[in-house]
Amino acid sequence: MAALIAENFKFLSLFFRSKDVMIFNGLVALGTVCSQEVFSVVAFHCPCSPERNYLYGLAAIGVPALALFVIGVILNNRTWNFVAECRRRGAKNCTTPAVFLLFGSIMGRAVVAPVTWSVISLLRGEAYVCALSEFLKPEALDNFPPNYGAETMAKFPCVDIPVEVLSFKAEVIRRLKYESQLLGWIWIATVAVTVFLTKCLQRCCSPLGYHQEQYWSQYRSIENQLFNHTAEVHAKILAAVNVKKFFGFVALNNEDKELVKEFPVEDVQSSLQWNEITGLYLYRENKGVPLYSRLHKWAKGLMGKGTDVEEKEMALLAV
């Protein structure tokens, strides 16, 4: 029974590791939904005034979405790998397909939160009702009293509505929410079709087989995890060595003492080595042997030797 549980746990671990992008995007979308709900309850207050309604409604939809997009770009490691590539190597490896795929990858992750925000805003309809209420024509409503213009229509999202037209509030809100939700569903359909076509294009253009591409994805994820964990341990041991040299002793817990004893560190990697494993990476094959990352290529001793005539470069990006 224990073995069965262990195998199932291992399978789930590998599954989620291979689907880390999907899970990350799902968590980002969920966080954005929660943030949107809090914003609607706490911070959204329609000014209910002509011209101000429109600006405030658009800002409530667009400004948070723009901020989330910028944050998504900033938090994406590929953004800074691209910056490092441009600074150190002048982006000489950035062919047109590579740049296209790079920006597609960065934008694909960065737009998850903004798209979620805009979709939820449109489906809720509050911001749209606020923004477009002043543009709703009174003539479009049956038996609407005359002599009421944009100033009155702009007050429908609020409570201070003239008594004479108060009975029309539900109809005005219903019409505007219908338009807002219709735009929201159209936006969802557009995004879904775009994602589907993009995935189809990616699969059709990929020179790798399905299983090899899945393996490459798992390799990158595992390599990144091991590299970060090992770098943390290496930094801790090196810091312990230097602190001991300065003070004559170092205060470590039992676990850290075992690490220092098991993995002696006397030196650090040169800047050249760091530069060689940092930056964008195009999938390569050297004499038919796959090279799955910059670190993999460096470990094979192929860095700094130029492009071999038998080396095959493919427009698939990794970082």
Automatic annotation (TrEMBL):
Q: Which GO terms describe its molecular function?
A: monoatomic cation channel activity
Keyword Cell cycle in the entry? The reply is no
The entry's keywords: Ion channel, Ion transport, Membrane, Transmembrane, Transmembrane helix, Transport
Annotated localization: Membrane
Q: What InterPro entries does UniProt report for this protein, alphabetically?
A: CALHM
- How is the protein disposed in the membrane? Multi-pass membrane protein
One GO BP:
ATP export
Domain of life from the UniProt record: Eukaryota
One Gene Ontology cellular component = plasma membrane
What's the short name of a Pfam family annotated to this entry? Answer: Ca_hom_mod
* Spans traversing the lipid bilayer: 21-42, 54-77, 98-120
Keyword check for 4Fe-4S:
no
The family annotation for this protein states: Belongs to the CALHM family.
Q: What is this protein called?
A: Calcium homeostasis modulator protein 2-like
